[in-house]
Amino acid sequence: RGLAALMVVLMHTAGRTEFDWLGLPTYGPVSLFVISGFLLYRPWARWSLGLQDKPALRPYLLRRATRIFPAYWVVLVIVALVIPASRPVGVEGWWRAVTLTWIYEPEPMREALLHTWSLATEVSWYLALPVMAVIAGRLARRFSQIKAFWVCTAGLALSLPVSIGWRIWASKADLVGQLTYPYWLPSFLYCFAGGAFVALLVEARRARIVRLSRLTSFVADPWAPLVIALALTLVATSSFGGPTGFVPVTFSEEQVRSWSAACIAWLLLCVVVLAPVHVPLSRLLGTRWFSAVGRWSYGIYLWHVPVIVVLERDITFPDGALGLLWRLVCVLAVSIPL
Fold first, then answer.
1. What is the pTM of this model?
2. Nearest one of 285, 247, 243, 244 to 264, comparing CA atoms
C-alpha cells in the first residue's frame, strides 16, 4: 500500500510538470484494488475451503463503512470550503458525492476530488464481494478441499472475460471519456479477483491443500521478480502505453497500461506474502518507513490531490528537476500529517 500511495502522488505531481513521463500509469489504483482483493477475500477463502465458519456480514460491512466514509466526508467538506470550483453542485450532486456514487452519472469534473473515482469503485467491490463469495463458496464446500480450491479458482477466473467484455463495450458506449462506464467495477474486477486468487493460494498452501513449490521458488529468487517488474514497467511506459501526461489514450494503449500495472501488482504481492523475508524486494517493501506509509496510505490518497491543487494555486514553483522535487516535498509534507 505504501508503494501504491507514493506512486499515485508521484503521478499526480509529476503530471503537472515537464516530467510527466515519471511514474507508472494506473499502477496506484490498480495495485490498491489487488491488495483489497487479497485482504478482504482471505476469510471467504478459508470458509470456501472448509477451514473456518462463514464470515459475519454485519461486522464486515460496518468495518468497511467506518474505514472509508468518515475520513472521506471530512475531506469532501474541507474541499468544498477551500476549493469552491470542486464543490458538488446541487442536492443531487452532494448526495452522489457523499455516497460515492458520482461515477455512475456524467457530471462536471471536480479537479480536487477526481481521484476518488477509484474509491467509488472500491466501495462497489465491498458490496459485490460477499455476494460472489457466497455463491462460489456454497458450491465449493460441496466437494473435497482440493476440488473446492479449483472451484474457487474457476470462479475467480470468470472475472477475466467479464472485465475484457465490459472494457470493449465501454469503449464503444456513448459516455466514453467520462468518469462513468470505464471506471465501474466490471472494468477492474480482474484486479480484485487477482488479489483474491493470491489469498486463495496462501490459505490453500497453509492448509497443505497445494504446495506451490515452483511459485515460491520463483518469488524467492532475488532478481527474477524485479527484472520482470522492470520489464513490464518499460512496456507500460513505452509507446505501446500511449503518450505521457494527462492526455487521452486509445483503447489498446489503456489496456497495455492497466494490464501491465496489474501484473506488476500481482507479482509484488506474491513476493511480499510468499517469499522469505530476506529476499531484497520483500525486505525493501517491509521496511519500517514503507510500512508506515502503507498505514497512512488512505489519508495520503485522500488529501494529496486537494493539497496539489491548493499549492499550485498559491505557490510559484521553479522549473526543472528542482521544481518537481520541491513539489513532491511540499505535497508529502502536508498530506502525511493531515
1. 0.94
2. 285
